[in-house]
Amino acid sequence: MTISNSPSKATSIKLFSFSTPQMRAFHMSWVAFFVCFFAWFAAAPLMPLIKNEFGLSKDQIANINIAAVAVTILIRLIVGPLCDRYGPRRTYVGLLILGAIPVFGVAASQSYGSFLFFRLLIGAIGASFVITQYHTSVMFAPNVVGTANAASAGWGNSGGGATQALMPLILTAIVLLGVEQALGWRLALLVPGVLMLITAWAYWKFTQDSPAGDFSTLRASGLIPDTGKKVARESFVRACKNYRVWMLFLTYGACFGVEIFIHNIVASYYVDSFGLSLKTAGLAAGSFGLLALFARALGGIVSDRIARAKGLDGRSVWLFVLIVGEGLGLLWFSHAQSVALAVIAMLSFGLCTHMACGATYALTPFIDRKALGGVAGIIGAGGNVGAVAAGFLMKASANTQDCLFILGIVVTLTSLCAIAVRFSQEHKTQEEELYQQAVRERSLAVG
After folding, report:
1. 357-385 pLDDT, tens digit each
2. Helix (H, G, I), strand (E, B) or coil at 421
3. Per CATH, is 21-221+229-446 categorized as 3.90.850.10?
4. What are phi and psi of 87, to 5 degrees?
5. Closest CA relative to residue 209, chosen from 87, 373, 82
6. Which of 36, 79, 108, 215 is the least buried, fewest Cβ under 10 Å from its Cβ?
7. If we measure between CA atoms, which residue out of 71, 99, 136, 73 comes closest to residue 377?
């Protein structure tokens, strides 16, 4: 699917509006991603309880953490091209409905084996990120697409912080009603599954694929070509041939991969290393995820501002700076000897991590407009490859501190991949023309 710069793309973000298809897609995409992220990591803050109930070993917990992000790699590669073929609306609704099944399955698990199985399947809903980024990329013009992508993903990502803080509170409320704790954590895990089904209904009702309508309607009307099933395959193959895609695949592994790895382990880390209670550890861990409320958007906003003066190369340099900051912050976090210093260090590298995620997808729409689904899917999958690699590193490390230290070194070195993302003069000229067109359209709309 070629995503061109159309006059119907939004040239501004009217944050408190729900009246246009662009803003409905913006708000529904981040809400859907928030709910998916909440469900994806809902079990993480309850792991100390689950560990005791199933008698889990260190290796078994590591396996569960790896499983939670492993299958997402495959599904992210698939859903990007599916968006090209069937549109983001149908793809998102299907993922929400099917993804709710393993969420309910986790709550019903009776053994380590069944818990691991459903935790593996639940990772599929992490692919929701790719659909969110695809949908906003289709709806917004080049002058604001970086901000739109970063804000929608950032607010959605904050579901990871919300689940760290809210799941222990939901469990507490259930226990206060007289339910045994062994049953309470299972009932608590039903909540995100129900929310996914409600969100699926709302997404179908309030959104459309593009400013002009659904892809199926546009194809039937002859407004876009009916390329058949080949479109998904062609999008993926074209994206695979672009070296910039693989550079951002690695950088996204270094930022988003670290982010979801931290979501999986940080609550247990605070309990085991500093003796915090489940509730206090959840609040400390939640602060990391809640940075996404503004930090990811900030990364995209700054990228858009830099692009006005420095062009596409400026976006790459900005991403490089953020990943270096993340790596150095991780090294600090790995050596923190007190809760206070650990939280400060976590928030410091977390700020760079979330901003780097936003800066990555502020650059993604400009890689290849003719293969947006494939590009978004491959780069998104890189985040989960990074998380899986971090999970295996954790399994092989003597302790969490060693794992974080090595991770900090790897992230810092990966920043060089951001600098390697460069564009031809012809590519820059084309993007500049599209950018100036969007600026003119916005000036006319304001006038």
Report:
1. 989 988 988 888 778 778 888 898 898 89
2. coil
3. no
4. 95, 150
5. 87
6. 108
7. 73
